[in-house]
Amino acid sequence: MPTVVEQAITLKGSSDMVSQFFSYAINAVLYMRGVYPAEMFEQRKAYDVNLMVATDQRLNAYLSQVLEQVKIWLSSGMVESLVLVLTDVAKAKQIEKWTFNIEMGEDAVKSRKKSKKSIKQAQKEIQALMRQIVSSVTFLPLISSPCSFDLLIYCDKDAATPEHWEESGPCDIVGEKIQLAEYSTGYHRVTGSICYTTDDDDEEEEEESESL
């Protein structure tokens, strides 16, 4: 009988895999949280999960540009986290933050050896996280007002910022926090979390304002 050999992951493959995950994760959040109309998305299967991806050319061009740069930084170990922030347009208030922290072994960039983890193993872990992201809509608070989004990339201080990109400070949201699953490619380890505000948080802020 022939022996089945599982394909190992290279550093480039790991960077491609993490960047692709970010693309699907961002699209899933933008769809689930109603940042764009549902008709701007179409269904696509990835990681054996039915996901919604945007069909709008301008949005896709923007995401592709950002994630291509992220992929370059991933290969050199310069990305610390990718953060997707949702802002209530009417209140001009940040209401939700999706954080994906990225860890990379110190020797991973120098070592060009293939990862001990197979593509199949990594994709199984990504599948579990993506299923969790998709199901999060069942417990997150309903968003009834129009929202905008920002993508924040936190990098090593030596990373060269592309032209037209703006520097941003930290985004702090006071509210509930949920820790998501994690996955590893053998080169990169990605951990996710969601921080969101509730109606109770708004009421507490109003009470504090009135008391001042």
From TrEMBL:
PROSITE patterns, per the entry: HORMA (PS50815)
Chief location: nucleus
Entry's localization field: Nucleus
Alphabetized UniProt keyword annotations: Cell cycle, Cell division, Mitosis, Nucleus
Domain (HORMA): residue spans on this chain: 12-194
tRNA processing in keyword set: no
Pfam family, one: HORMA
Keyword flag Cytoplasm: no
Family: Belongs to the MAD2 family.
Name listed for the protein in its UniProt record: Multi-domain containing protein
The species this protein was found in: Aduncisulcus paluster
